[in-house]
Amino acid sequence: MSNSQLQLVADWERQKEQKLSQDFQVAQHYALENKQKLSGLEDYRLDYLRQAQVKATEGVGSQTFSQHQQFIGKLDKACELQMQNVNQAVVVADQRKSQWLKQQQKRKAVEMLLEKQALAKLKLEQKEEQMMLDEMSIQKFIRR
Q1: At residue 2, what are phi and psi to the nearest 5 degrees?
Q2: CB 3 within 8 A of CB 117
Q3: To pair with 1 at 20 to 30 A between CA atoms, which of 18, 81, 119, 137?
Q4: Which DSSP letter does residue 144 get?
């Protein structure tokens, strides 16, 4: 593979890595948002539960108490669903991170190959230059 073709592959791998990095960051942000929503729901549930307990000690009707319990049940269900969303978002973020890291390895491998080619070219150029200098020295020696 020629150096320019390999450079194109390296550029493409770099772009692919950047996209996967962005995808990972988006997934990470989404997981964080879901965790914050869960925290907010849990805080709201606790506050509501405390308020319901205060009202219960003051004395409430059975219908009102039943409505409070139903609402707390709905909050529990919402917390469970949000926990599932958090778990799924974390799994997706982990997958995106894994994809990004694999792509990073590919990019580094291509760049290392480019470096090897550049080093080999430099060595060849130095060898040719040394051969030219040796030839000039021999010619100079012969002329004397």
Answers
A1: -70, 165
A2: yes
A3: 18
A4: -
In the block, tokens 């290392």 appear at 112
**Residue-wise pLDDT tens digits, 56-107:** 888 878 888 888 889 999 999 999 999 999 999 999 999 999 999 999 999 9
The neighbour count for residue 80, using CB atoms within 10 Å, is 12
Per CATH, the number for 3-143 is 1.10.287.1700
- Which of 84, 96, 107 has the alpha carbon at shortest distance from 16? 107
CB 31 within 8 A of CB 90: yes
Q: What is the pTM of this model?
A: 0.75
Could you count the other beta carbons within 10 Å of the beta carbon of residue 72?
A: 14
Helix, coil or strand: residue 72: helix
Provide, for the chain, the percentages of residues in helix, strand and coil under a 3-state DSSP scheme, each rounded to the nearest 5. Answer: 95, 0, 5
